[in-house]
UniProtKB/TrEMBL annotation:
Residue numbers spanned by region Disordered: 443-469
Organism: Nocardioides flavus
Cofactor requirements of the protein: Mg(2+); Mn(2+)
Protein's recorded name: Amidohydrolase
Domain Nudix hydrolase: 492-630
Amino acid sequence: MLAAVAHETEPVVTLTHLLHLCRDEHRVLWERSGDPHSAGVVMALVSKVADKLPPPGTATVLEPSVREALVAALEQADGIPPVLIARALAGLIDERYGHTFAPWFRRRSPYQPAVGDPVPLDTPDLRQVTAMRSTSPPWRLAHRLDETRHVRLAGEWVVQFRVVFDYSLFDILSGAVNADTVIATCHPNRDLREFNLTGGTSDRTFPVRPREAGRQRTEIDHLIEQATGAGASIVVLPELSVTEVLAEGLHEWVRRPDGPRVLVAGSYHQQTPVDDASSRRRNTAIAWVRGHDYPLTHDKYSPADRPVVEDIQPDGWPELRVYVTADGWHLTLAICRDLLNPQAVNALSEAGANLVLVPAMSETLMPFGGPVAHLVGTRQALVAVANNPGEWADEAHGVSGRPARALFGHPGLGQQSRLVQTPDPGPGVALLTVRSAAITWLPRTRPTRMPPAAAPRSSSPTPGSRPPWLAALERRTHIPGAHPSGSGETVQLRPAAVLVLLTGGPSGPGVLLPERAADLTDYPSQLVFPGGAVDACDSGPVAAALREAHEEIGLDPHSVELIGLMEPMALPRSGFLVYPVLAWSTDPVLTGSVNHAEVTALHHVPLLNFADWGALGDVSRFHGSTPAVDGAEPASLGRMTAAVMDQLRGILSHTKSTGGRS
């Protein structure tokens, strides 16, 4: 080892030699590492070496003077086992030369280690990603003799799998996971009747595929759109929810500017030729990454035996491919029961897998909780398991159960993993917010089947229930279609709408305002009107505003009365032309559930509370924060929201000063 250290210029190779000594003499290392005298001698020797080493990040090779200092420290043991010095020197090289390890591995990509070879080991700083304390130290759970922060020696696990470290996405996937990332699992199917099961649920079955590919594509497109609309940048579809053609067609989603950055397009059964006389049946997962033209693939090697007997023929030596990113994420794909193999879970942990995306098709996700918790605990991993369908049945017994729709693993969860259970087996989307570990279920929305728009002005809810100030607002707004829509000139802004819902109260009119979640990219922790872009399924701004209010806060459109449209506002930075839709309700009804991925609370804000602020003539003060409402802490007010409320206050103040005339 001394001869190798004396001549080796690559830091990662020298580090490997030192870690080999630590592995070979681990008993001595454990016995003597707690001895105060030995620790003091080792510290003194290593300090001399540290003085001769360059600062971290400044050198790429071990210069002769550095190599001489390393050898001298190991030769000057003076009764101290050299393994103690080797362990301390390994940590020092890792600290000073760790920046050279990734380029070393990248030059060898795809890198397939043998037993005893160095393995890249790194973890992103979770303090920059999550808002809670992690369940283990940021870079490792325990003090390992054969690892440092950036490198671990490969064990026997690399002979059980064809382990490959792939750096082809090193820069492309940089920043794919941050504090604002939302991971979504999409669930397109209700029950097994939506699949073709060639052998039923009792005989060997191949292939399993969606019964109606066109309908399945439409359903998946809508769920991906719903997921990305909720902020998801990583989307996972379930096992066998696609055909090969359908999976390839989903590539277009990562090419769209509003699409996900990573899309695991489920998995599919395929039959590939081995030679002229034979073929192999496979279950293949496919994933698409923005900026990368080729799919990521993974073949399942653990066939299902119930409730569907999966007739596939996996290779005898399965591959475990780890995609390493510049910021320390190790992305891997697994298919359903592959994650229940203890050896596979150990290999994933040893390989540093910390972003594990899993398409599944199982009658229960309960057994997956242990493996997921292991990955979270040892590697601080983020895990997303997408299950399908929502209901399991067979010919003899009918409905046999409703499994969990998804399973998420996150370092901030108390049990390190959590199942997503839903009362209804219909399609939907499960969301995991990385910063807060918040989990949300969104049932599949169907805008085309939304209730009709609220009644026109002529159908007041109750005679005499409408306050007099509504008349002033009616005179200053218009009903859609009551006047020409514009001059016909081309406008390069996308139409959008917000619902300005007014209610009555002892102090006059109030406004219902949702408070946005703190981890959203747009308007985090701000009070804003519910709303969004006018979609193709909307008949206009009114329909869009009511639809968005229904999706965001569960508002029943039948419980509000339309007052009219205010003048649209152009938002050049975001590219929208926003129509404020004014509505009134004595008692707004929330029939649906609040979308907790976007909304943390609902506030009723008295409109005239803002009058004194407006008199100050200081726009920044007006846009600063709102009074505390219903005991809540003050929250900032969105700029456009503040501008609309200022207009409303001005109209009502003018009406009051003129005795009701305008």
